[in-house]
């Protein structure tokens, strides 16, 4: 694949986040379906060396340039021969001189009724289709003996049994992990067409937020390091847009500056409809804002907007809500924008170790972890300012939109962080 550096990737439509008139509370599933429908890859492509491929997203199907294994070979250390010349009972075969080893092929043919010393990974010489394990043989300087029958092609690997030449090793949109690099390398691939890393701008807002020397009325910026780290763990390029006080002019200049450095912007704070919610105010008056009232706890409206052609996700300021909104909404959305396609979180069912009465109407996410005996426990406080609960948790328990009484032992849905942070 050739790369055209000046190729301009498609832009999202300005009205892509618009909600139909009159929509009040949107269930989580519907909000996800709406996002999924409007998002597609927005980054250009480039070609990189395979060893730089970790975490990158394939921009093309990758076809094996050679089969793996390329030739039939031995799976063990032993002796090779043609099966047709063996039978049941004790088989004694004279040895030919020489041997077949990995990287040192045996030249010449092995006559039927003879055997050759062969080592793991060695190409099967002409006249060999079956290998007997050395541990199963009596061995002299000139012959071997073993108990037959042996299965035809025993202890051998067929050419292409792992993957055939020309077969698709990995599809376009696949995000590369360490084992994927092994597969691509084995099939002779050295260069990779990939999407450019999605540049994710992270902006914190709030008059009270500082990064050092906090006065009593100030708090440290917890969201920015968290969201920058999230983008990095997703294989994207985190772009630190710093912090802005609650000031429309300053937020405007931060957002506008970001359009040259980022493909998508995540803000935190100021996204509701209050007096000091300058992010949503600005996006509403000068960007294309859609405030999605998602029926979810924690989480207030999720502000979705286009700012000078760049999608903006306005996350709540509260670190617990910011993280959960980022995991549930931003992660699949950014994955789609990055070329890796929409992702749905891994979910499994565990018995609850807790009790909870839940009202109808909003889906709930609780900070949770797995106990030593395999139950889901939840953090003692549901307070949305409790960052310690995020650090304590190894996942989330998801409670459905409907009313529910959970008792110990009841099945609940657990979403592991391990999946969310990759
Ligand atoms: P907001 O969404 O701006 O109303 O903020 C909600 C709560 O989150 C307030 O208590 C803020 O002080 C707090 N908050 C906002 N941004 C951050 C941040 N970057 N780090 C820690 N707390 C924050
Ligand atoms: Mg604020």
How does this structure look, described?
This protein has eight helices and 29 strands. The chain starts with 25 loop residues before the first strand and ends with a helix. The strands form eight sheets. Strands 1, 20, 23, 25, 26, 27 and 29 form a seven-stranded mixed beta sheet that branches. The protein has a six-stranded mixed beta sheet with strand order 8-5-7-6-10-9, with no helix packed on it. It has a six-stranded mixed beta sheet with strand order 17-14-18-22-21-19, sandwiched between helices. The relative contact order is 0.13. The chain is 19% helix and 31% strand. The chain has four domains: 2-44 and 197-338, 3-Layer(aba) Sandwich (Molybdenum Cofactor Biosythetic Enzyme, Chain A); 45-65 and 164-195, Alpha-Beta Complex (Molybdopterin biosynthesis moea protein, domain 2); 73-157, Molybdopterin biosynthesis moea protein, domain 3 (Molybdopterin biosynthesis moeA protein, domain 3, Beta Complex); 348-416, Beta Barrel (Beta-clip). It is of the alpha/beta class and 422 residues long. Bound molecules: adenosine monophosphate and magnesium ion. The site of adenosine monophosphate has 18 residues, from helix 3.
Uncertain segments of ≥5 residues (pLDDT<50)?
none
Q: Tell me how many strands there are.
A: 29
Molecular shape: elongated
Which radius of gyration do the C-alpha atoms yield? 30 Å
CATH-assigned fold name of the largest domain: Molybdenum Cofactor Biosythetic Enzyme, Chain A
Which second-level CATH architecture of the largest domain applies? 3-Layer(aba) Sandwich
Biggest beta-sheet profile: 7 strands, mixed
Helix content: 10-25%
The tally of helices reads 8
Percentage beta strand: 25-35%
Structural class: alpha/beta
What's the CATH class of the largest domain, please? Answer: Alpha Beta
Each distinct ligand: adenosine monophosphate, magnesium ion
Query: Averaged pLDDT, please?
Result: 95
Number of domains: 4
What is the CA-CA span between the terminal residues? Answer: 27 Å
The CATH homologous superfamily name of the largest domain equals: MoaB/Mog-like domain
């Amino acid at each position: 694949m050739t790369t055209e550096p000046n190729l301009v990737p498609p832009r999202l439509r300005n009205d892509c986040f618009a909600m139909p008139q009159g929509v009040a509370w949107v269930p989580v599933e519907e909000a996800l379906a709406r996002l999924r429908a409007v998002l597609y890859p927005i980054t250009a492509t480039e070609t990189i060396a395979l060893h730089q491929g970790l975490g990158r997203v394939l921009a093309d199907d990758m076809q094996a340039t050679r089969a793996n294994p390329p030739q039939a070979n031995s799976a063990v250390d032993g002796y090779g021969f043609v099966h047709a010349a063996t039978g049941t009972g004790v088989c004694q075969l004279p040895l030919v001189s020489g041997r077949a080893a990995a990287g040192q092929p045996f030249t010449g043919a092995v006559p039927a009724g003879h055997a050759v010393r062969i080592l793991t990974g060695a190409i099967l010489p002409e006249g060999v289709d079956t290998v007997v394990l050395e541990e199963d043989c009596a061995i002299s300087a000139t012959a071997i003996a073993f108990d037959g029958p042996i299965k035809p092609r025993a202890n051998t690997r067929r050419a292409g049994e792992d993957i055939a030449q020309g077969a698709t090793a990995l599809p376009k949109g696949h995000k590369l992990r360490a084992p994927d690099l092994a597969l691509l390398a084995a099939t002779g691939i050295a260069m990779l067409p990939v999407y450019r890393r999605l540049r994710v701008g992270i902006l914190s807002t709030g008059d009270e937020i500082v990064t050092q020397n906090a006065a009593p009325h100030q708090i440290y910026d917890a969201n920015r390091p968290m969201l920058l780290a999230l983008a990095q763990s997703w294989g994207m390029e985190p772009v630190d847009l710093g912090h802005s006080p609650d000031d429309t002019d300053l937020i405007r200049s931060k957002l506008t500056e970001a359009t040259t450095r980022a493909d998508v912007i995540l803000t935190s704070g100021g996204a509701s409809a209050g007096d000091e919610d300058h992010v949503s105010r600005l996006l509403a008056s000068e960007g294309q804002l859609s405030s999605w009232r998602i029926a979810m706890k924690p989480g207030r409206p999720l502000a979705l907007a286009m700012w000078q052609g760049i999608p903006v996700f306005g996350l709540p300021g509260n670190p617990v809500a910011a993280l959960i909104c980022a995991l549930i909404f931003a992660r699949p959305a950014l994955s789609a924008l990055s070329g890796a396609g929409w992702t749905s979180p891994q979910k499994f069912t565990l018995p609850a170790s807790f009790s909870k009465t839940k009202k109808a109407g909003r889906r709930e996410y609780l900070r949770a972890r797995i106990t030593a005996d395999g139950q889901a426990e939840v953090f003692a406080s549901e307070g949305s300012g409790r960052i310690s609960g995020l650090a304590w948790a190894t996942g989330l328990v998801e409670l459905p939109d409907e009313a529910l009484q959970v008792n110990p032992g009841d099945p609940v849905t657990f979403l592991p962080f391990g999946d969310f942070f990759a």
